[in-house]
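Problem 12. The chain below contains 140 residues. Write out its predicted structure in token notation.
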Amino acid sequence: MSCFINISSGSDVDAPKVMIDEKKRKRMISNRESARRSRMKKQKHMEDLISEKAELERKLHEDNQKCKAILQAHLVLESENKVLRAKKMELIQHLNCLHQILESYKKSETSNSNLEVSESYLKLWQVNMQPIAASGMIKF
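Solution.
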């Protein structure tokens, strides 16, 4: 009978050990699952960051293209503005010449003398009215 007691008393000792092993096994499984979820979450975060980086680079490229187009349009407008300002100055000179001729005409009418227009007025009147070519166009 002593064998029976030894066996039963041995199984009483093994029961807590089995429970501890079972808890340890469940904890290991839980830890592995948690680590797997953590790796998956980290991988998804990394993929999201890579996707966001690609999108930002695409937008940056588009913005750079828009900026270049706007800069080129600005340079064209600046050149056209320069041409128009030069044309304006020519027209102002031409208008001044016309005013001087008109003043001379008015003076000649009041004095009942012949209208005399000096050579300088005639030269001003014959200002070359050809369009001014734009120079310095910058291309990209």
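Discussion. The helical segments are 2-110, 119-125. Students who got a different answer should revisit the alignment rule from Section 12.3.
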